[in-house]
């Protein structure tokens, strides 16, 4: 067996779509897939940030397309599907990573917060699948296309309020609720799409904070067995495994990258 990196994880000639591409994890995921050889369609709501990221990747000799799309807007998602259809004509990797971060508790969360979170995590995933399903199936004719959702450790366990300085900073209840729902929707999609050769898996990141108070980060890290928070780059290997055709017999799985947080 050829065990070179290209043979194991190479995505040369593949088309990848990453939602939430300009976010903390999204940027790393987009660069990881592009470095592996894929043409990455960068999806997000802010055109200027998408153009900036695309320019960075292109300057490094990578292939990227800025594709402005609000995944909560059905018309935008449909237009994205059309653009992919008349462009590359296939999708080999679809990463659903869109996320908006807020704080809150049961006492402060509003009904509309739950609805908006569900729309972004769950309904948007359904829209994306509807817009790209035929393109994923087309890729299955000569490869093993992968759909990858991004959940959270808080879809498996509750946040610890004592770690946060104020109720406004606590990870809100609707975030974990919809991320748990996304794991179930991932399993559902995996079963439905398996006969068509499309794999659907999830990655569940742990504590990957985007900076902040050093004392808070220290306390957060101490609650994982490895004793530290993660860096976005540590998600890359799990992503490549699930995106690569080498994981062709893996579907309906949840790869947890959390430093052991959910192990105790």
UniProtKB/TrEMBL annotation:
Keywords: NADP, Oxidoreductase. Transmembrane segments: none annotated. It comes from the Bacteria. The keyword NADP applies. GO terms for molecular function: oxidoreductase activity. Its EC number is 1.1.1.-. Belongs to the short-chain dehydrogenases/reductases (SDR) family. This is SDR family NAD(P)-dependent oxidoreductase. It comes from Hamadaea flava.
């Amino acid at each position: 067996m050829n065990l070179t990196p290209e043979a194991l994880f190479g995505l040369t000639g593949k088309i990848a779509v990453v939602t939430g591409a300009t976010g903390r994890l999204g940027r790393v995921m987009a660069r990881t897939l592009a470095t592996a050889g894929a043409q990455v369609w960068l999806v997000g709501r802010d055109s200027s940030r998408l153009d900036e990221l695309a320019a960075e990747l292109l300057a490094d000799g990578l292939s990227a397309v800025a594709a402005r799309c609000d995944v909560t807007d059905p018309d935008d998602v449909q237009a994205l599907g059309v653009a992919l259809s008349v462009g590359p004509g296939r999708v080999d990797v679809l990463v659903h990573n869109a996320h908006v971060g807020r704080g809150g508790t049961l006492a402060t969360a509003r009904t509309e917060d739950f609805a908006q979170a569900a729309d972004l995590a769950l309904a948007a995933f359904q829209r994306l699948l509807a817009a790209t399903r035929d393109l994923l199936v087309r890729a299955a004719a000569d490869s093993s296309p992968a759909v990858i959702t991004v959940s959270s450790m808080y879809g498996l366990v509750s946040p610890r309020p004592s770690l946060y300085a104020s109720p406004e900073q606590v990870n809100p209840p609707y975030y974990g609720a919809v991320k748990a729902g996304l794991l179930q929707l991932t399993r559902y999609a995996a079963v439905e799409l398996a006969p068509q050769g499309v794999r659907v898996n999830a990655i569940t990141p742990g504590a990957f904070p985007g900076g902040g108070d050093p004392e808070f980060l220290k306390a957060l890290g101490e609650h994982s067995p490895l004793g530290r928070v993660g860096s976005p780059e540590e998600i890359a290997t799990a992503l490549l495994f699930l995106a690569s055709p080498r994981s062709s017999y893996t579907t309906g799985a949840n790869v947890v990258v959390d430093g052991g947080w959910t192990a105790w």
